[in-house]
Amino acid sequence: MKYTTLRCDSHYELDKEVNEKLKQGWKLQGGVSITSHGMSIYCSQAMVKG
Question: Which of 6, 10, 46, 47 would bridge 26 by S-S if both were Cys, CB 3.0 to 4.6 A apart?
Answer without folding.
Answer: 47
